[in-house]
Amino acid sequence: MELLNVDHIEKYYGHKSSLTKAIDGITFHVHKGEFIAVMGASGSGKTTLLNCISTIDRVTAGHIYLEGQDITALKGKQLNRFRRENLGFIFQDFNLLDTLTAYENIALALSIQKKPVKDTGQAIAQVAKQLGITDVLDKYPYQMSGGQKQRVASARAIITNPKLILADEPTGALDSRSSKLLLERFVYLNKTYDATIMMVTHDSFSASYASRVIFIKDGKLFHEISRGDDTRKVFFEKIIDVVTLLGGDVNDAL
Question: Does residue 140 sit within a domain?
Fold first, then answer.
């Protein structure tokens, strides 16, 4: 079932005398239950693409549909309601509130949606168990490791059962062990709960956990590959091959 339809979108920044085309006619579809990674060089437009899908940025042209609803036409209260009810966000810098415990940070997402208080404890206990953060629920962000904070942020994003989880460089601030743990949790949520995830990443290792990788170059869709029945190692090698084709040194392209 098609969940997301990105239809010939364009995004310009600046004024008539100095226009920058960040996205140039990108079109693709995402089915429910897919785990998509978006890769490209710095300045390729991948984060702008995520921002347009998340409604943080407005497209200059084209349309984005979520379950058939044209989200590029939403404004004001409609837009706020759409974000609240349909999207989950995971950021590189976690965006946790320092004055709240992990439990309270996660509960805030349910409170904003006006979920019954009586259901909060059970829901948080369940998601904390899934993400392995039960032992930090009473801790404040400054008492947690980077990996723990990112998993708390992930719990906050998924506890409302969003239709689409958007992750912007979620492993960027993590060490290799914490990155691996987080990505394994993403795969678990994707496989077990049919969560649909779109992750922007500069890292081929992270991208290899996805079921499909979309490559962006100069604001355009450059290429895409699907994992299919490949092992993660084989898929990683295919990703590296495409990254090399993007041009320049591999590390520069990531």
Answer: yes
Backbone angles phi, psi at 66, to 5 degrees: -115, 115
Tokens of 13: 């920044």
DSSP state of 248: S
End-to-end CA distance of the chain: 31
Residue 25 lies in a domain: yes
List the CATH number of the domain containing 184. 3.40.50.300
Domain that holds residue 214: 2-249
Report CA dihedral (137, 139, 142, 143) to the nearest 10 degrees: -110
Phi and psi based region of residue 9 (left: phi greater than 0; alpha: psi -120 to 50; beta: remaining): beta
- Identify the weakest region by mean pLDDT among 55-59, 173-177, 247-251: 247-251
Q: How many domains does the chain have?
A: 1
Contact status, residue 139 vs residue 108, Cβ threshold 8 Å: no
The pTM for the full model equals 0.88
State yes or no: pLDDT of 93 exceeds 90: no
- Sheet with 18-31, strands from edge to edge, namely 18-31, 2-15, 61-66, 69-70
Residue 254 falls inside a structural domain: no
Q: What is the pLDDT of residue 247?
A: 66
